[in-house]
């Protein structure tokens, strides 16, 4: 018979095996998405570029902005510089309860372009300051376009971005929205922004391409996309309770039977957090927002109406719950084993799989960045290796903190706070 110590080791072995199995399962799924995304990329670059129809639709570009004086002028200049027909789009800046110099800067730009369709909506604490979704709903009421395009206040899209988004959308009436690609504008600012640059290429837009290829699924990002106004109004606009308003609205679009397409030719450049505290606040908001979306739609997981979003629901559940739990257990066992406090018979097996996981992660991630000019460097290869060891643990801390924060807000009925990402000159 096993003594108490052997029984504990047996239980630890069992849970460690499940943790390793879960981590590898999610890693394999991501590798499959990467391969599919790469195939999708190769196919898209061979396709003819989408062309605007003879009757060019009118587009309302909306930019929610709270205390964005540092970046808003540069963003506005990029939007005014689109190669889309000038008389077929308007720009609406929702200056949302700002207390910096945004209003003055925007008024100056308006005076420089008196003949352009440029509108500034200045909200105050009575109707604004309640987050991005609320600001977008305010802007939608004054928008004139049959298509709505969204850009964040720190974005500098390429001149062709809007044209490619609209041209792609108008090719298929079953498309509710088309999303573009976003790149890291300040990627050389710090080691953190280098991490984010690779994360953006590998785990955001390449994963989008993979999900589109395998499941005809894409998640609307917070910026650089165009959506049909009638569909947006049919689903009731943006959910003001959702911190991840982009994921939430994507799920509602799919449940209506429409599709979202990814068009990598439509590129925007955006600022990313340069310091750990800013990154931590931003990603915590993302975690809370996605947990809200998961729990809001979890009841649909195995229903007919939830079929269009089933993969994404399972994927998010795996990432935010299964993977986090598995990583915590795996890391804890590693620390306890090194400290000599506990020992598992599977530690050697687990370590071998860990080395294989690192190799798989590095190869698959490096392959994704080869699609971008100037990214296939030895420095980036070393950063990817470092990413697995460091950035993954940083994400784990964010996920755990976001979950605890979300639970606390629900228990004490607290309103989720909107943390605006810090901008840089």
Automatic annotation (TrEMBL):
The chain crosses the membrane at residues 14-39, 313-342, 348-369, 381-404. Pfam families: Glyco_tranf_2_3 (PF13641). GO terms for molecular function: glycosyltransferase activity. Gene3D superfamilies: Spore Coat Polysaccharide Biosynthesis Protein SpsA, Chain A (3.90.550.10). Keywords: Glycosyltransferase, Membrane, Transferase, Transmembrane, Transmembrane helix. InterPro entries: Nucleotide-diphossugar_trans. Belongs to the glycosyltransferase 2 family. This is Glycosyl transferase family 2. It comes from Lactiplantibacillus pentosus. The lineage of its organism: Bacteria, Bacillati, Bacillota, Bacilli, Lactobacillales.
């Amino acid at each position: 018979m096993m003594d108490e110590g052997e029984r504990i080791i047996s239980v630890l072995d069992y849970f460690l095996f499940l943790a390793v199995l879960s981590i590898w399962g999610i890693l394999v799924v991501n590798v499959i998405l990467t391969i599919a995304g790469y195939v999708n990329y190769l196919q898209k670059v061979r396709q003819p570029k989408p062309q605007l129809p003879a009757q060019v639709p009118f587009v309302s570009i909306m930019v929610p902005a709270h205390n964005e004086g540092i970046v808003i002028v540069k963003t506005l200049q990029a939007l005014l510089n689109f190669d889309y027909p000038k008389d077929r789009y308007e720009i609406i800046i929702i200056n949302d309860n700002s207390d910096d110099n945004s209003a003055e800067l925007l008024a100056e730009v308006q005076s420089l372009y008196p003949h352009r369709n440029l509108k500034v909506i200045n909200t105050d604490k009575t109707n604004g300051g309640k987050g991005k979704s609320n600001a977008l709903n305010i802007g939608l009421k004054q928008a004139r376009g049959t298509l709505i395009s969204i850009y964040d206040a720190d974005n500098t899209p390429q001149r062709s971005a809007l044209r490619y988004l609209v041209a792609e959308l108008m090719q298929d009436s079953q498309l509710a929205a088309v999303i573009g690609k976003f790149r890291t504008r300040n990627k050389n600012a710090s080691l953190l922004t280098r991490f984010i640059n690779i994360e953006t290429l590998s785990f955001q837009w390449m994963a989008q391409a993979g999900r589109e290829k395998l499941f005809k699924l894409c998640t609307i990002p917070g910026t650089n996309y165009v959506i049909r106004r009638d569909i947006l109004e049919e689903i009731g606009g943006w959910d003001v309770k959702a911190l991840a308003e982009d994921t939430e609205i994507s799920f509602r679009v799919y449940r209506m039977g429409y599709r979202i397409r990814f068009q990598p030719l439509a590129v925007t450049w955006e600022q990313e957090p340069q310091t750990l505290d800013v990154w931590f606040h931003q990603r915590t908001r993302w975690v809370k927002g996605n947990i809200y979306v998961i729990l809001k739609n979890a009841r649909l997981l195995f229903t007919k109406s939830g079929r269009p979003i089933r993969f994404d629901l399972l994927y998010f559940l795996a990432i935010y719950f299964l993977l986090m739990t598995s990583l915590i257990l795996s890391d804890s066992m590693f620390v306890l084993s090194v400290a000599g406090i506990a020992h598992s018979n599977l530690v050697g097996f687990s370590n071998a799989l860990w080395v294989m996981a690192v190799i798989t992660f590095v190869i698959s991630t490096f392959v994704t960045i080869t699609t971008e000019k100037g990214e296939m460097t030895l420095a980036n290869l070393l950063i990817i290796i470092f990413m697995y060891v460091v950035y993954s643990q940083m994400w784990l801390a964010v996920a755990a903190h976001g979950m605890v924060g979300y639970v606390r807000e629900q228990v004490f009925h607290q309103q989720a706070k909107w943390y605006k990402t810090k901008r840089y000159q």
